């Protein structure tokens, strides 16, 4: 989708000789759609940076956005796309800055009836702007996906807090569905807290888990095994009647893992175990 050396040369001459008029018209074209989001001065600076980068990319002859000569232009487009995505601009608000160049070029090019060369130059310039716009959109979309993934991870961590209930007892209240990704976060957060607090007991409270199936049970059991490898015992609390019936129906075995109906029951059990351990050591 690039340009030939001749097309690039003519476009370079236009961008160079009409620089001031082009950048002013270009800025005017993008100011109205982004009014209230960015000042005209900010947009003018971005337009000038893009204009300069495009000129540099055209100096290499035949324009190719994927080529070495366009490295600076790609970097400028990436910076624009990423900053707009992080600031909450929409894809359309981001792309309009690039497509504003097409409006500026059309208004600047003096096309007369029958001037086939000028018409060809308009088509070539439009083709280049379309390529820049597509690259900008793809970069914007990728950045948005990365931001969403980061936010999802942050929300996942916020949804799995590990709290210290008592000296030697920590608890992790689970709310919502426990899938593989979240189970991994639960395990990591719990093990980190066990190391930090040197707690011998951890309570996994599933009161807020709507349903326990085989997969959820397996995730919980893996967390218990990992905690035991760290020298800590886990107590599962929040075993409601419905969940108890489901566990029995599915044939899920928790083995020797202590289970309690409420978090308070689990805490009392842990404190009794801690006290029993103290008495055993003193005898």
Describe the protein.
The protein is rod-shaped. It has ten helices and five strands, in the order H-H-H-H-H-H-E-E-H-E-H-E-H-E-H. Strands 1-2-3-4-5 form a five-stranded mixed beta sheet, sandwiched between helices. The termini are far apart. It is 66% helix and 10% strand. A hairpin with a 2-residue loop joins strand 1 and strand 2. The longest helix is centred in the middle third of the chain and has 43 residues. The chain has 283 residues and is α/β, with parallel strands linked by helices.
Major sheet summary line? 5 strands, mixed
First-last Cα distance: 85 Å
Q: What portion of the residues fall into strands of 2 or more residues? A: 5-15%
Query: What is the N-to-C succession of helices and strands?
Result: HHHHHHEEHEHEHEH
Strand elements, count: 5
Uncertain residue segments: none
What order do the strands of the largest sheet run in, or round the barrel if closed? 1-2-3-4-5
The whole-number mean of residue pLDDT values reads 86
Helicity, as a percent range:
55-70%
* Rg for CA atoms: 31 Å
Structural class from helices and strands? alpha/beta
Shape: rod-shaped
Count up the helices.
10
């Amino acid at each position: 989708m690039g340009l030939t050396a001749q097309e690039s040369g003519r476009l370079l001459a236009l961008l160079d000789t009409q620089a001031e008029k082009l950048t002013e018209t270009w800025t005017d074209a993008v100011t109205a759609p982004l009014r209230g989001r960015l000042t005209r001065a900010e947009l003018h600076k971005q337009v000038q940076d893009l204009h300069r980068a495009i000129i540099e990319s055209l100096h290499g002859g035949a324009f190719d956005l994927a080529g070495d000569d366009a490295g600076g232009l790609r970097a400028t487009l990436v910076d624009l796309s990423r900053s707009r995505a992080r600031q909450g601009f929409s894809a359309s608000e981001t792309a309009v800055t690039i497509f504003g160049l097409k409006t500026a070029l059309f208004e600047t090019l003096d096309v007369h009836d029958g001037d086939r060369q000028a018409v060809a130059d308009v088509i070539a310039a439009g083709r280049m702007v379309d390529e820049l716009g597509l690259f900008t959109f793809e970069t914007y979309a990728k950045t948005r996906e990365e931001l969403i993934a980061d936010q999802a991870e942050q929300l996942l961590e916020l949804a799995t807090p590990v709290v210290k209930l008592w000296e030697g007892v920590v608890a992790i209240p689970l709310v919502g569905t426990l899938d593989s990704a979240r189970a991994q976060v639960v395990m990591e957060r719990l093990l980190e807290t066990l190391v930090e607090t040197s707690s011998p007991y951890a309570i996994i409270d599933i009161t807020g888990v709507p349903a326990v199936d085989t997969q959820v049970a397996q995730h919980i059991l893996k967390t218990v095994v990992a905690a035991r490898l760290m020298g800590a015992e886990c107590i599962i609390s929040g075993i409601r009647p419905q969940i108890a019936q489901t566990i029995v129906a599915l044939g899920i075995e928790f083995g020797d893992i202590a289970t309690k109906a409420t978090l308070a029951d689990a805490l009392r059990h842990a404190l009794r175990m801690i006290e029993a351990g103290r008495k055993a050591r003193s005898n």
